[in-house]
Design brief:
alpha+beta, OB fold (Dihydrolipoamide Acetyltransferase, E2P), BirA Bifunctional Protein, domain 2, eight-stranded mixed sheet, five-stranded mixed barrel, 15 helices, about 25% strand
């Protein structure tokens, strides 16, 4: 059916060109948006443009609805106003979905609808495919994401989500800049990937004939090099890439923010982060209380701190700081949690923790992580088996991660070696040895705190999946 309609429109396009009319002109002087036209006084002359969403020909009078980014508004073409020839040309050649520029006067119909009485029109774009009439059912949910541009046309309210997302990230940038942080850009292509536990994407640099990795963090090891260089407050907002599974919360290509603050520790960073989250969320939504996946979360309250080891012990009666690998495996089996038997102890602990956090409402700061699960964090001087790290837990998931950065080059080198052994054993998410970064630390990095969070937070605030909150999510190609 759609292909038949396309053939009809292609024939119209051919005839339009034969009359000497350009169906795809380069520009139109749009002086008012439809919202501005709608808000104008009656009798105001306007020059605007948009997409035709409806066409209703009544012989001598044709009512249409025009839509742009701001508004959908009725326009009227009248034979007595534009002449029979122009009227007939419009009715014969225009279809729903076409873009049209108009000059006309704002008036009110006898039914009370604010409209534009057209004096002159210009074809701006001839659409060759008809717009979808409706979206429904499970299959169409996939189609909505695949053809997002059509979803925006059919559901213009969806645009509001992405206006909020832009506001969310702008509020983040504004907050950090107001606190004296410098926005920087670090490499997205790396010879050694680092800064997180994740499997990277691999690509090839033809000119240098070397394999490279797409970054899995927003320049963590690069921003810490900037601390070595003498910068004291930096942040970066950008895309990072992780070659891991897809879920409601996980994507392979997404936006993250990371910031680094010299002479601060994780306690100072926690204070800053709580203030930042409240500021960003309030500016974006004008509220601080949300329903997220069945949880009622109040970001406005004072955020409590909970202990990593004690929380697991309380829920599952196992002390992961003392338990053997075999004991943790037994606990995972008892709980019927899936895992790969060849994983190292740190990864098994992390799997157990992720089961525990599912019931935590938050927002809370999770602290006192074992050193085994935190290869880049500074040890706690009171207990060298723990690190000065925190994670923000909201509605059963992690919504941010920070720590006092490890600046002891010898300790860092040993932890990289342990991670390298995990990689050699088959753990592709373990971190790589980065000797250049260790060398940079040997020149001296001041005490530094770091923190990062991703667009997962935004998707949770929207109470939607991560894919729904990406403007063009990655999709498997159609066969």
């Amino acid at each position: 059916m759609a292909q038949d309609e396309r053939k009809i429109r292609l024939e119209k396009l051919k005839k339009i060109r034969e009359t000497g009319v350009d169906p795809y002109p380069a520009k139109f002087d749009k002086k008012q948006s439809l919202q501005e036209a709608y808000n104008s006084k009656l009798g105001t002359k306007v020059q605007t443009a948009g997409r035709l969403m409806t066409i209703r020909d009544m012989g001598k009078l044709c009512f249409c609805h025009l839509m742009d980014e701001t508004q959908k508004m009725q326009i009227a073409l009248q034979v007595d106003k534009i002449g029979q020839e122009a009227y007939d040309w419009f009715v014969k050649n225009f279809d729903m979905g076409d873009f049209v520029g108009i000059v006309g006067e704002v008036f009110k119909t006898h039914k009370g609808e604010i409209s534009i009485l057209v004096e002159k029109y210009t074809l701006l774009t001839k659409a060759l495919r008809p717009l979808p009439e409706k979206w429904h059912g499970l299959v169409d949910e996939e189609l909505k994401l695949r053809k997002r541009y059509l979803d925006f046309i059919a559901n213009p309210e969806l645009k509001e989500l992405f206006y909020r997302k832009a506001k969310f990230w702008q509020a983040t940038r504004d907050f950090l800049q107001a606190k004296g942080f410098l926005e920087v850009e670090t490499p997205a292509l790396e010879t050694t990937v680092g800064g997180a536990d994740a499997e990277p994407f691999v690509t090839h640099h033809n000119a240098l004939d070397i394999d490279l990795y797409l970054r899995i963090s927003i320049g963590e090891l690069w921003q810490k090099r900037l601390m070595v260089a003498g910068f004291e407050k930096t942040f970066e907002l950008g895309r990072q890439f992780r070659n891991e599974g897809m879920s409601r919360e996980h994507l392979q290509d997404y936006t993250q923010m990371e910031c680094y603050w010299a002479y601060a520790d994780y306690n100072g960073m926690m204070t800053l982060v709580e203030e930042m989250y409240k500021k960003i969320i309030k500016e974006t939504y004008n509220k601080l209380e949300f329903t997220i996946g069945g949880f009622t979360v109040d970001f406005g309250k004072k955020w409590e701190k909970i202990d990593y080891i004690q929380t697991i012990k309380k829920d599952y009666d196992i002390d992961v700081s003392k338990a053997t690998k075999d004991a943790i495996i037994k606990k995972l089996k008892d709980l019927r949690i899936d895992f790969a038997a060849d994983l190292a102890k740190p990864r098994l602990i992390d799997i157990l923790w992720k089961q525990v956090r599912k019931t935590i409402v938050g927002p809370v700061f999770l602290i006192n992580h074992p050193v085994d699960v935190s290869p880049l964090a500074k040890r706690d001087p009171k207990d060298p088996n723990k690190v000065q790290r925190f994670q923000i837990i909201v509605a059963g998931s992690e919504m941010g991660n920070g720590y006092s950065e490890l600046n002891d080059p010898l300790d860092q080198e040993e932890r990289f070696k342990e991670q390298a052994q995990m990689r050699e054993a088959g753990d592709l998410e373990a971190q790589m040895m980065d000797q250049d970064f260790v060398e940079a630390l040997e020149y001296g990095m001041p005490p530094t705190a770091g923190f990062g969070f991703s667009e997962r937070l935004f998707s949770f605030l929207e109470n939607k999946t991560a894919r729904e909150c990406q403007i063009f999510p990655l999709m498997r190609p159609e066969k």
